[in-house]
């Protein structure tokens, strides 16, 4: 099975004709299916898709990887002038837990711009994912993964990332985070939005649950929020992992991108306009 991935919005851009922003959105074509994975912050991914010749009217599913605004707020623009109104939205059952960043002097809201009421009001076809492995299309080896086990010792939760649960601010465990995994016959292609649960944990969960090696990883790694030691260990893990392609972007950060470029020969920094045939 061939897998084509088009980066519709990212922090950087390959062309002045394409917009960039602190956010992420990608269009995935695999096995005759088409998936919009994340929607960025502003809705600029829609203009970029047109400029790139990506036909979003063919979208069969919209997946929001987690509940931060820079991955989900663009969904408001998607519904305003929806290219594929029948395409269901896939979110995790814990998607609507409020999210904050601890800024020491205040808690800054970084969660969704819409809630369950808006979903109902706009009559958005919506599927709540609750299983650790969710088959996205009947008969196709395309899966949503969630509930990632934290088996990697250096991928610990970020204490500045908070969720409001039971009326209290708690360290966010990102229980709603989902990744897309595609079995192309040779191995797994794994797409992650931010990898708040850790890119190593996500890849290891995919390998164990689906019984196949990960041959390609694409997405954010959240090294922008990590210390130097964790960043070093992450790059070293990917360099030694045997994963044949590592496409990194978004929350990897400029220093993280430089580390991958220097320490992982099979890696590539992505931007708005990047197109991958995996």
Automatic annotation (TrEMBL):
Pfam families: Lactamase_B (PF00753). InterPro entries: DHPS-like_MBL-fold, Metallo-B-lactamas, Metallo-beta-lactamase_dom, RibonucZ/Hydroxyglut_hydro. GO terms for molecular function: transferase activity. Residues 22-222 form the Metallo-beta-lactamase domain. SUPFAM superfamilies: Metallo-hydrolase/oxidoreductase. This is 7,8-dihydropterin-6-yl-methyl-4-(Beta-D-ribofuranosyl)aminobenzene 5'-phosphate synthase. It comes from Bittarella massiliensis (ex Durand et al. 2017).
